[in-house]
Automatic annotation (TrEMBL):
Primary location group: secreted
Oxidoreductase found in the keyword field: no
Organism: Grantiella picta
Subcellular location per the Swiss-Prot or TrEMBL entry: Secreted
PROSITE patterns per UniProt: OLF
Similarity field: Belongs to the OLFML3 family.
Protein's name in the database: OLFL3 protein
Keywords of this entry: Coiled coil, Developmental protein, Disulfide bond, Glycoprotein, Secreted, Signal
Highest rank taxon of the organism: Eukaryota
Length: 393
């Protein structure tokens, strides 16, 4: 196409080009307008967020100032309380110096000698039973291993006379804190002591011969060469009574449990104490205890040897001694001594316990449940007993 033809077309194309240019400008203006609107919205939102953040900051600062004032007030109260406690402690110390506390246990030597003389007068006499209980152990019907708790030695039990379902746990042979679980379920399911209450005793115990009976804890305390039976009220956490056990030169009652000098046991007849002295160091002795006054009502020399004995309990007025070997084997009841004379020695059953883990550090008979709560090398076990009638002599 020649140049002259292009010149002829220019007048025809000019209006179309102007129209396209106008549309493009309008499009650019619309886009710019939208962009300006978005910038304006962002600016408004940013201003609003900044205002809210400033308000929140002021609110937090106010709360922090209030908290600091409360902390200062609490610190001032704590310091004031500490000053009052110090003043009170000084006053108590002064009162104690002016009025010294009486000894924990006053031993009336004359009264103790009288009790010993009265008990010895009745020593080895035939016992007049208080109940019509005429059962003895025939065999161990069942064994239930509940769990493993605490150290290798200890004891666990229920109240031997009351109806409470609480479980009392004494961990170790020398301690002063008793764990109390509300029921068997809590003791069985939880490996720790977080479900247990703690009772802090006024004096530490020794051995594993303690007993819970009719709402009271009867436990053994060593004071020099002598041993005391402490009666402790579990409800109000106080010592109700205490008594020096009237036996001279005591030795461990069980050959395989050297930490236990007195074993307090309960049966259908009441409370008993199993012990040993140097006077007859080969065999055990048995005493009937008054649960109210802790007096010794009667004493017996038994034919049951201490050697290789690991525990003992009383059932219907008959002492049952459990034996083992130095290398723990199968425990068995091999000596039975009936204080009422209604059980012929040859008719007493030789009762074997199922094979377990080691040796028993405690065996607690429950007369209301007819079962034994045992502690075996840290395992807590229940033995259910099969009973039979005594064959009278």
């Amino acid at each position: 196409m020649g140049p002259w033809r292009c010149l002829l077309l220019l007048p025809l194309l000019a209006p179309a080009l102007r129209a396209q240019q106008q549309q493009f400008m309008e499009y650019v203006e619309r886009r710019l307008t939208l962009l300006e609107e978005r910038i304006s919205q962002w600016h408004d939102q940013s201003s609003r967020y900044s205002t809210e953040l400033r308000d929140f900051k002021n609110q937090v600062l106010g709360m922090l100032e209030a908290a600091e004032k409360e902390r200062e007030a609490m610190r001032a109260e704590a310091e004031s309380a500490a000053v009052r406690v110090d003043r009170l402690e000084r006053e108590v110390d002064y009162l104690e110096t002016q009025n010294p506390a009486p000894p924990c246990v006053e031993v009336d030597e004359t009264l103790m000698d009288k009790q010993v003389a009265t008990a010895k007068q009745r020593k080895n006499e035939k016992y007049t039973k208080l109940t019509d209980c005429s059962d003895t152990i025939a065999s161990v019907r069942a064994m239930k291993i509940l769990k493993r708790f605490g150290s290798s030695s200890g004891l666990w039990t229920k109240d031997a006379a009351g109806s409470s379902e609480k479980i009392y746990v004494f961990d170790g042979t020398a301690n002063d804190t008793v764990y109390v679980f509300p029921r068997m379920r809590e003791f069985t399911l939880f490996s720790s002591t977080r479900k247990a209450a703690r009772i802090k005793l006024p004096y530490p115990w020794v051995g594993t011969g303690h007993l819970v009976y009719d709402g009271h804890l009867y436990y053994i305390r060593q004071q020099g060469p002598s041993f005391q039976v402490i009666k402790f009220n579990l409800a109000n956490k106080t010592v109700v009574d205490s008594s020096v056990f009237p036996a001279e030169e005591q030795i461990p009652v069980f050959g395989l449990s050297p930490s236990t000098y007195i074993e307090v046991s309960a049966d259908e007849e009441g409370l008993w104490a199993i012990y040993a002295t140097k006077e007859d160091e080969k065999n055990m002795c048995l005493a009937k205890l008054d649960p109210d006054s802790l007096d010794i009502e009667q004493m017996w020399d038994t034919p049951c040897p201490r050697e290789n004995a690991e525990g003992a309990f009383v059932v219907c007025g008959a002492l049952h001694v459990v034996y083992n070997t130095r290398l723990p084997s199968r425990a068995r009841v091999q000596c039975v001594f009936d204080v009422s004379g209604t059980l012929a020695p040859e008719d007493a059953s030789l009762v074997y316990f199922p094979k377990r883990y080691g040796s028993h550090s405690s065996l607690k008979y429950s007369p209301r449940e007819r079962q034994i709560y045992a502690w075996d090398d840290g395992y807590q076990i229940i033995y259910r007993m099969e009973m039979k009638k005594k064959v009278e002599v």
